[in-house]
Amino acid sequence: MQNTYSLFDLQEHVRRVVALNFAVPVWVSCEIAQHKESKGQHYLSLVQKGEGAFDIIAQADAVLWLRTYRRLKRALGKNVDDILQAGMEVRLQVRLDFHERYGLKFFVEDVDLAFTIGQLELKRRATIEALQKAKLLHKNAEFELPKVLQSIAVLSSENAAGLQDFLAQIQQNSYGYRFKIHLFPTVMQGEKVREELTKQLKKINRRADEFDVAIIIRGGGARLDLSAFDDLSLCKTVAKSKLPILTGIGHDIDESVLDLVAHTSLKTPTAVADFIIQHNVRFESRIVELTWLLQHQVQQIVQQENLRLENASNTLQFYTQRLLQTKQQELKHLRQQIPVFARQYIKLAQQELAHQSDLHHFLSVEQTLARGFSLITKSGQIVRTATDLEKGDEVTLHFADGKKKSRIENE
After folding, report:
1. Domains (ranges, CATH) in the chain?
2. Mean pLDDT of 233-258
């Protein structure tokens, strides 16, 4: 007959087996499925997954007591908080304890930071490879930035020091540029980064015509802070954005996949502000340069036209003087010719006058009468036709040598 144990006896036996075989802490590799903090104590749900994302093949609960947390915090700094997040691949040193009532429990004693960073790097490389295969890694960089950046969509935590640095730098620029800045608040650290950033990016895409550029900024932090920015889904959203995206997420050495997929990656929020200002400065400088070139070309054209005008004026003056000299010479020649022409004209006129005088003398009444003609007058008027005379009219006949009276006897 098989042995029968009471539940307590069986649990006590298991506790002894665990205590005997796991007398010292052991290292375990797993994923944090859930994390909850209460009064300084950290409660973790640890899982190991199979091939599928939801294929859980092992699960256990773990506790990080406040005293141990403080010790790890002193040793690892802010990295402890970055590791204690859902979805994080971790390697924990745990002390196993089995209680007859509460079952098996893991008590966290230490954290292997290098392991988590290594897992994040593998995830980062996988994300980059997936983006390359989808031809999305450089898609956002294909945008041509507007000539002037004025309307800016900002994704950042409302209270982040990095946001204040950005605003101070861009609003107090020495060039007097004015910008229209619209904040889309989002958490920039922790489990909700991907969800909130994606949500806000979609909002911006719906209003893409209102903005020239979108920027993602945050303050500095530890290497593990970048894990959220290596998320494949988030990076795809950025790559497919309807606006060019600039990043300044506060890391001088490390570069997230989000930095790689963005249009332009800067190290800090202040650097993003400087980039935007200098972008506008280059445009203004180009305008100033073109204005100077235009003024220079206009001056050259004016100088050339003034020279042409001066040459034309000199040419006109020269030809005017030549024409005047020619006309003066012609006038002088005419003055010299006038007496000759006058004498010739007078001589011709005199000849014409003499001819007319001879003609007048030849045609005079006296010469006509001398040639044998006579002139009939009646009452002192010359009779020109026979009809001017009637029977009985007295007429006077004029001859070269005298007059005779006569009367008309018949018609």
Report:
1. 7-111 (2.40.50.140), 123-282 (3.40.50.10550), 366-407 (no CATH)
2. 87
